[in-house]
Each structure stands twice: as C-alpha cells, then as structure tokens.
Amino acid sequence: MKQVDIINKEDLDKERFQVHYEVHSPGKVKRSSSFKRKGCPVVEVGSKLHRTTSDVGRVCDRGMANKENELTCSDDVRGMHYNDNCGLPVNSAEASKMAGASSKYSDFTELSKDHEAMTHVLFGRNLRLKVAQTLWRRNASELVAYLIRIQDTGVLLDCLPVLTNDLQTEAPCLSLGCCVDLMPQVKVILSSKYEEHIMVGLHWVQSVIRKWWPELSKNEKRLRDSRSEDRNIEVMKQRLKDLWKEGARLCLVPGSTGELAKAVEAYLAQLP
User: Name one GO cellular component term (predicted).
Assistant: First the structure.
C-alpha cells in the first residue's frame, strides 16, 4: 500500500505539473483544486485526475490555441489597417469628388448671399409700395410726387399699370400735369433692355395720348397767360416728340412690342 501511495503521489505530481503547463482554462484548474480539498483517497484522486487531464488534452491543444491567437492577431491587424484607411482618401478620384463637393458648398454660400440681397431689396420695395398705396388712396398728385422723389424704377414699374388703368376710366384721378411730370421717368423705362419694361411704358404713353388726344391734336397756339391745362397740353406735345426721337427704334422690335410702338408712332405722326 505504501508503494502504491508513492506511485500515485508521483503520478499526482506529474499530473499536477502537466495540468499547470497545458491547461489554460481557469474552470478546469478549479476542478482539480476542489478535488484536493475534499481529501478523497489518493488512488481515486489519481484516476480522476487522469480522466480530467485526458479530457483537457482533447479539448485544449497548444497548436489550436496558437492558431486562435494568430487568427485573433490577424483580425486585429486588419481592423487597425481598416481604421487607418478610413481617414485618408483612397485615390485621386475620391479626392476630386471631395474637391467638387467643397466647390458645391461654396456655390451654395454664394446663392445664400444672393438670396439675402434679394430679400433685402424686396423688403425695401414692399415698404415703398405700401407707402405708394396709401398716397394713391389719398391723392394721385401725392403719389406722383413720391415716385419722382424716390427715383425707384422698380416701384414705378409696379405703379404704372395702376396709373394706366386709371387713365382708361371716364374720370381718372391722374391729371395731365401729373403725366407731364412722370414723362421723364417713363422715358428711362422705354430705354430699358427688358421687353416687359418697355411694354409697360408704351401702354402708359398710349393711354395718355388717347385720353387727351382731342386736345393734343388741335392745331392752336395757346398764349402764355392761358390756363394751366392749356400750358400742360403744349408741354406734353413737346415731351412726346422728344420721347419719340429715341423711341422710334422700338418699331423695329419684332413681336407685340414692335406692334405697340407702331401704334404709338401713328398717333405722334399726327401731332401738329
């Protein structure tokens, strides 16, 4: 029995050494230590350790552990390379795309600046149109004086269609004297490069001529001391003639603009 005990102790020491060298799982080590604390017979413990070490040898192999370590390290290295490549442009094509994107952003910045400027312009024009509407309801002569004072072509273009419609009524609010005062600004509109602006100006001139055509077509010399209406007729005749010295070119414009200019010229050709 003593010899058996010695052999088992030696085997036990060998097995303990092998378990300490080969087993990497903390769970398995705890099992061996738990057997030791129970104080079971040595032979039984040795047999159990043999079974335990045989199981461990089958499950955990040093070569397999090394392979797992290699795979884990290779995955980590690939992850590091991937993370490094994420922050850098892959090629020149991607760099050119990034440059194009930055240029698009600059374009949007310019557009926002343009929109801010346009918003500022429209805000100012809206305020002036509200003032013009108030003056128009109060007195037409006050509106004309306001338009002459501000010298804003955009506001005048917005107001001229209203004044044109008023001249086409039987009892217009706009007097001949007001039309005489507005003629220099309408002349500026007729020299515009925009056809829509020219059409607005021509419609107003045509309405003025039609409204006071009976007085304008008379071949009578009015004295200087005559009433103001007669003086305004003479001034209007002269201003219409001066206007058409530069406006005759409008008859060469194709389309509706040229047709309207020819209609105005047909009236002006009959002025005495």
Answer: cytoskeleton
